[in-house]
Specification:
InterPro entries: cNMP-bd_dom (IPR000595), cNMP-bd_dom_sf (IPR018490), Env_Response_Regulators (IPR050397), HTH_CRP (IPR012318), RmlC-like_jellyroll (IPR014710), WH-like_DNA-bd_sf (IPR036388), WH_DNA-bd_sf (IPR036390). Keywords: DNA-binding, Transcription, Transcription regulation. This protein is globular. The chain has a four-stranded antiparallel sheet. The protein folds into two domains: 11-157, Jelly Rolls; 185-268, Arc Repressor Mutant, subunit A (Orthogonal Bundle), CATH 1.10.10. The chain has helices at 11-20, 27-37, 57-66, 147-156, 158-184, 187-203, 218-225, 229-241, 257-265; strands at 69-73, 78-80, 88-94, 96-102, 108-115, 119-120, 133-136, 140-146, 211-213, 245-248, 251-254. It contains nine helices and eleven strands. By secondary structure, it is an alpha+beta fold.
Amino acid sequence: MLNNTIPVLDQSNTDACRSSSKGSTNGSSCAMKYEAFKVACSSCNLRELCLPVGLSQPQLSHLDSLVATRKTVKRGDALFHTGDAFRSVYAVRTGFFKTRISSEDGRDQVTGFQMAGELLGLDGISTDRHACDAIALEDSQVCVIPYAQLEDLSREFSDLQHQFHKIMSREIVRDHGVMLLLGSMRAEERLAAFLLNLTQRLHARGFSASALVLRMTREEIGSYLGLKLETVSRTFSKFQDEGLLEVKQRDIRITDEAGLRALVNSVRC
């Protein structure tokens, strides 16, 4: 299972320590607390899934000094909104997020779901403004990585720059995958591909390869897959009737993975 035992340091705590250290003997105490609460990439169980993949121990130590704060985001709250100034990227430590954009007619379109070990905020790099909202689907925590400092560190360590480019490439590939879902797949194929992808990502984090609890609603799934709520609900029922899934509200168990894969692979024929 994932290591969730490191305590939380919010930016407000950091600012309080900084202010109290001026003209006070409490400065050293705050510094000690700051070090104790600091998130260390080198000891994080998610490091194989997150930014520091393949870095040496000295390079990890440099990155530790950069990733110095964590932020807690309550369920339903936003990590950032469309139009907010872009200053940091965020590595999801615990919890689950969705990203969404709003159309001119006021409708929301879900553009992705992010879990522990994945990055948020890359949308803001090109314009220095975030292009979507990031909303927590459950109580979550993120590591805050100031982007300007990340750029400086990437220039110093080519391995880190290479890994960051790989992450950005992965996002491009994911976007292409969504285009395939929306452009060429029937409803059953879209939902099958979505469930297989979700369980694969969860399994890489130490969870079951066949059972999961959906953090998102069926309406949010429909928004992401370009399907109506009724279609998503009907397809879940169809999968259960065909013995592909066991469905109990948000609890899902895949009982015929080969059958789901056969649905997805039929698109390539």
